[in-house]
Amino acid sequence: MTVAPPVNAPIVTGLYVPGDRPERFDKAVATGAQLVILDLEDAVADAHKASAREAVASWLRARAPGCTVVQVRINAGEPLDLAALAAVDAEFELRVPKVESLSDLDVVARAVPGHPLTALFETALGVEGALALAAHSAVTRLALGESDLASDLGTRAPAAMDYARMRVLFAARAAGLPAPMLSAYPGIRDLDGLRADTERGRDLGWVGRTAIHPSQLSVIADVFRPDAAQLAWAESVLAATGSGGVSTLANGDMVDGAMVGRARSILALAAALPR
Ligand SMILES: CC(C)(COP(=O)(O)OP(=O)(O)OC[C@H]1O[C@@H](n2cnc3c(N)ncnc32)[C@H](O)[C@@H]1OP(=O)(O)O)[C@@H](O)C(=O)NCCC(=O)NCCSC(=O)C[C@H](O)C(=O)O
Ligand SMILES: [Mg+2]
């Protein structure tokens, strides 16, 4: 049985599905991924764009409300995508690729009003503008497209990706948005590589990751699930700081209100990722 996540629960696992594979849409939801992204953009060949648009709109109309967050990734500046989605009266979010300017977001927010936007940064210009773009009133999440970014930069060097991850993380937090989810890891069979790269992103402060294959989901959940020591620390911080002021944990560490936010985030992650 799927249990609805608590309000403001972190979203840790996401799964992309090509928009022209409607037979996989319900399957994607059934994986238990907390976020399912129906892609009209790079996963769909030009010849299939129109049928993908129709398949996505018709699935959204027929879908019974559930606890999975559903996003549609549109093609940047494609009026046909916007028109098709504006005609759908259902709950979904929009994932806007290659965002570089406020007008990229305005166009979408005006054409399909009332749907939260995830701004996907995939170029140096987008990453450098992340702080201002995160302040757009329709934007509720930020993300990075690291494959496109690597093409724009001409490198996928870890230092370049770390820089982009840090800028986008700071932009999200400065705008009061949740820590972003890591970009899709293209090596479907390389689960060790996925784990290592996800751990690196987690250690930089990112929370969650979008997958492109169901087999990646359990690795992603594992990486973000707090371990027993983190849980014990979080619980002892909350217990020790209940009445404010400074306290000392059993191990001698000082704790105060400054640690409460992190303790709560650890407990929220544990609640979102049951064993
Ligand atoms: C990559 C794939 C094309 C692989 O497909 P396939 O070879 O058919 O996979 P399997 O045979 O291993 O499938 C096994 C079963 O799993 C189901 N399956 C596979 N993938 C998905 C999925 N994404 N969602 C739901 N279900 C899925 C199959 O149906 C099989 O089920 P069964 O028959 O019952 O056993 C494919 O995985 C795929 O298309 N993935 C998504 C690709 C995608 O959307 N890419 C775009 C997003 S990432 C991106 O754009 C990068 C970003 O923008 C950037 O710049 O970084
Ligand atoms: Mg991309």
Listed once per kind, the bound small molecules are: ligand LIB3CWND, magnesium ion
What is the mean pLDDT? Answer: 94
How far apart are the termini?
14 Å
Radius of gyration: 19 Å
Point out poorly predicted stretches.
1-7
- Shape descriptor reads globular
Give the biggest beta sheet. 7 strands, parallel
Number of helices: 12
Supply the helix-strand structural class: alpha/beta
- Helix coverage percent of residues? 40-55%
How large a portion of the residues is in β-strands, by DSSP E? 5-15%
Strand order of the largest sheet: 6-5-4-3-2-1-7
Domain HpcH/HpaI aldolase/citrate lyase: 13-214
Organism: Conyzicola nivalis
EC number: 4.1.3.34
GO molecular function: citryl-CoA lyase activity
What does this entry look like structurally?
- The protein contains twelve helices and nine strands.
- It has a seven-stranded parallel sheet.
- The chain is of the alpha/beta class and 275 residues long.
Describe the secondary structure blueprint for this structure.
Elements: E1 13-18, H1 25-30, E2 35-39, H2 49-62, E3 69-73, H3 79-86, E4 93-96, H4 102-111, E5 117-121, H5 124-128, H6 130-134, E6 139-144, H7 146-153, H8 158-174, H9 191-203, E7 209-211, H10 217-224, H11 228-240, E8 247-248, E9 254-255, H12 260-272
Parallel strand pairs: 1-2, 1-7, 2-3, 3-4, 4-5, 5-6
Antiparallel strand pairs: 8-9
Bound molecules: ligand LIB3CWND and magnesium ion.
The site of magnesium ion has 6 residues, from α7.
